[in-house]
Amino acid sequence: MKGQLSARICFIFALTLAAPLLFSGCAVNPVTNEREFSLMSETQEIEAGRKAYPLYTQKSGGRYLDDELQSYVSEVGKKIAAKSHRPGLTYSFNVVNDDNINAYALPGGKISITRGLLARLDNESQLAAVLAHEIGHVTARHGAAGYTRQVLAGVLSTAGIAAMEAADISGREFIAQGGLVGMQLVLTNYSRDQERQADSLGTEYMVAAGYDPRGMVEVMEMLDSAKKGSPSRIEQMFSSHPLTSERLDAAKRRTDSYPDRFKTTERLGYGHFEEKTGKLKEDTPAFDKVADGKRLMTEGKELEGLKLIREGAKSAPNHAVLFAALASAELKAGDDKRAAEAASKSVELDPGLFQARYAAGLAEFKLSEYEESIKELDAAEEIVPGQPAVAFFIGRNHEEEGQREAAAKAYAEVLTKVKKGEMAEYSYNRLKEWGYLKEEPVKK
Ligand SMILES: [Zn+2]
Question: How confident is the model over 7-18, as a mean pLDDT?
């Protein structure tokens, strides 16, 4: 009866509200088995996640460079996903190179955990809890529900996956910050009900995979104490996954309801976890040093900051993202040659890292190596397409080389992405000067 009713509401809803939209429909929720109105079919959901995943990974500082750790996390995740309501999805799990304490799921089963969060976990059950919670959001289609809600609320003006992508990556402060920091995620801010459901599904899945449900309680307690210790690093996590005392109490109750065999002192995979995350924990002080250095530089303490960043990169010399940060810092401090060296080391360590290619492009531009710079910027464009700052510097290079038409094309590209700020102004003035734009009538 209930299913019938919601199917009818579904139909009316689709007819009245979604008629002008390109796609709409009802889908059976894999967890509740009830029909619900959704603007995202399963195919679209999977496609959106698949396309956005590499971009989100770049936004989060790229993949953490440790293949052994990556496959370990992926193994744990897949073991749990196999016990979920949607075992047939192609799940991916990765560790992204972000200082923040966070984890997120894109629709269709693409899940990331940050280095900052992983560094604070103590055992495999805790890791399982984080991944299982995210899997819960995926199986209950919370991302698709959030997307549908946002479209209906007019937050996303155009229906379709293309619109979602454009919203993902359009960092305006991007150039000023010399990284991808300015980009905002359009990930769902989950409701309390969705959080509750993800916790309960997550616990169910992790236990089915053989993990101690106390891992869930421990993670929540850790997050709660991290909120007091480093509030800024945990902001994203709390805005997308609000943590309440009610969630913690529910997790404790749930744990008590499981049989004793899940409450052994012998933690599943404990030793394994320590071994696999050892290097990450060892390198954490280097990352912290670089983060501190960046903060000092934004506070105007340039030399002090640069010194910390140099030390940090030197003490963990296998991480591309640290050398990309060093390159931006050297650029800011005006040492273009050192910037170019750091950037090229960064590219060497991870040719697929946007930040590395972008920093290399800027450094080569400063050194008047225009062709070299265009090569790096083209590579950056391929990794994360459509960044206005990339188009802008491609234009500047062409301009310096006297290739006016190519420069004009790049500047026009900039203006399709940004309308305000230095880059837009510069591009606009050049195009006008070169006769590509007509005088705009002055409004009175
Ligand atoms: Zn959540």
Answer: 42
